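Continuing the series of single-chain predictions for the mutant panel. This is the parent chain; the variants come on the following pages.
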Amino acid sequence: MASRLSPTLRARIDRAVAAGDPAPARPHHRLLAEAADVPPGLLYRLAMLEARSGAPAAAVRLLEAARRRTPRDPDLLANLGQLRLGLGDPAGALACLDSVPEPGRSHPAIARLRGDALSELGRYPEAAEAYRAGLARAPKDAAMHANLGAACRALGQWHEAARHLETALALAPSVEARVNLAGLLVDLDQADRAIRLLDEGIARAPGAAPLHRQLAAAARTDGDAVLAGRAVRRAALLVPEDAAAAAAVAELADNRADLDAAERWIRAALALSPRHVTASQLAARLSRRRRRPDDALAVADVWLAREQAPARRYPLLFERAQALEAAGRSREAFAAFAEANTAQREAAPRHLDPEHAFRQIAALDALYAAGRPTVGSPPAGPDGPTPLFLVGFPRSGTTLLDQVLDAHPDVSVVEERPLVAGLIARLNLAGRPYPGALADLPDDLRLEMRQWYRARMARFLPAAPTRYMVDKMPLNLVHAGLIRAVFPEARFLLALRHPCDVVLSCFMQSFQLNSWMVSFTGLDQAARLYRAALGTWEGYAAAFDPPRLTVRYEDMVDDLPREAARILEFLGLPWDDAVTRFDEHARRRGVLATPSAAQVTQPIYRTALDRWRRYDFAMEPVARMLAPEIRRYGYQQAGENP
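Parent structure:
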C-alpha cells in the first residue's frame, strides 16, 4: 500500500511552501516523492523553491516525482529540462523537452532550450532548426539570435552566423554577443575587425574581463604578441579568481618558451580551479618540456581518473601520450595516442565529413589531368613582394623551414593564415563553386582575387618591404592550380619528411578538427590523405612544371647551413648567418601560429628522425601502404622492401 502524509506534516509543508521556505520539507523529500496523496502541484512549487535557493539537484528529484504523476505538463517539463541542462545533462534535458506536446514545443523559450541541449550534444544542424523555429515566433529574441549564430559557426555557415550574431548585438549589446561575434571574425581571418569590435566594447565596459580575454585571442591570431599579452594580463587582473585568464597568460608564456613565467601562471590557475582543463594540460606539458615525463604522467593520470567527458578528456589524453613517448614507452604511448584520437573524434561536431577532402582532391586531379587551370598572366608591373608558397604535408618540417626563412632580412613569413582558403570562399560566394570554377576563370576575377589576397597579406607583413612574402600553409600544396592562376610568378618550396614519420606525427598531434584534419585521428586514414595530397601535387607539377624546390627535413637536420644555402640560391638571395640562428629569431617573434611552436624555439634536434621505426609494431602496414612514396622521395634504405 502506498505511503501517505500525516495531516500534521502536510500542514507544515503547505505553510513552508506558502512562506517560500523549502527548508522544513527537506528531511521529507523522499516521502513526498513516494506518497500517493501529494499533488504534483505541491511538488512543482517546492521544486521551484529549491531551484531558487541554489539546490538544483533536489529540484530535479522533486520534478521527476511530479512528472511521474503528470508526464505531459509543459511547464514542468520545460523547467526540468532547464535544470538538467544546468546540471550538465543535455541528453536528459532533451528527453524532457521532446516530451512537451505541441504547440508548447514551439514556444520560443522551449525552442531555445532544445537548441541549447542539441548544441551541447554536438547536434548542430538540429540545434539550428530549433533556434530558427523559436525565432519564427520571437524574431527579436537576442539570445536566440546569438545561439543560432553560434550553431551556424559550428556548422561552418559563416555568413549566416555573422548575420545572427550582429543582430543579437544590435538588439541587446551584451558582452557575450560581442565576444561571440569577435570569435567568429577571428575564425574568418578577420582578426583586425575583431580587435576593433572588442576595443569598442572595452570602451563601453572597461571592466568586462571576457572582452579582454577575447581581445588577447584575436591579437594572438593577428600576430600582435604585445597586445595579446597586455590584454590577457588585464583580464587576469580584473578577475583574479578567473582560472581561464590565468591559464591564457600561461599559454602565451609557454608559446614563447618562457617556462618560468608559464609555471607561475599555471600554479595560479590550478590554485583557483584544480580541474581546469587548459591549466592541467599546460602543467603536464611543462613537466615534459623540462624532461620530467613521470611528473607529466602523474598530472594527467590524476586528472583523467575523475573525468569521463570526451571533449574534456582528449587534451590530457594527448599530453599523457606525449609523456609516454618522451619516456620511450612506445607501445603504451601508441595505445594512449589511439585513445586520445578516439576521444577527440567523439567530441568533434557530428557534421564533419572526412570524405569532403578526398572528393575535392579527386576533382582537382581531374582538372590537372585535363590541363586546367591555365596559368594566369602576370601584371604589367610589380605589385608587391614575390609570393613564395611553403607547402607540404603537415608535420613535414614546414615550421622549421619557415623559421629559417623568416630569419633572413629579405624574407617575411606569414604562418598558417587561411588566405588561399579565402580565395576559395570568394569563388564560392561568387557562385563559382571550387574547384570546378578553375576550368574557366575570367581575367577580371583573377585580378580581383589577386588584389584581395595582397590586401589581406599586407596586414601581416612588416612595414619595411622584403623581396619575398612566404605563405606557409602546408596543405596548400593541393591548391597549386588556384595559386598560379592568380599568381603566375609564384614559387614553391615543398617540405618533405619520411612519409611514415609524417603520418605517425599527424596521428600524435591534437589538431583542431575540420573535414581535412579529422583524417589524422586514424593511421590508415592519415596515410590515405598523405597519398592523395602528394599525388595531387605530383600531378600538378608534372603537368605545369611550377618553379619549385624540394627540401627534406632530414637534410635540414643533418646539415642546416648546406640546405639553407641551397634554398637561398633557389631564391636568388645572399647568404645571411641569421638563418642558422633561427631559434633565437623564433623566440623574438613572440607568438607562433603553429602546433610546432615549442620545437622551433629550441636549436636543431634529432630525436624526431626515424621515430616511426620505434613503432614498427603499428607502422608496418602503413609503410607497405606508403611504399610508392617512400621510394619516390628516396627514403628506401638499402635492402629494405616496404
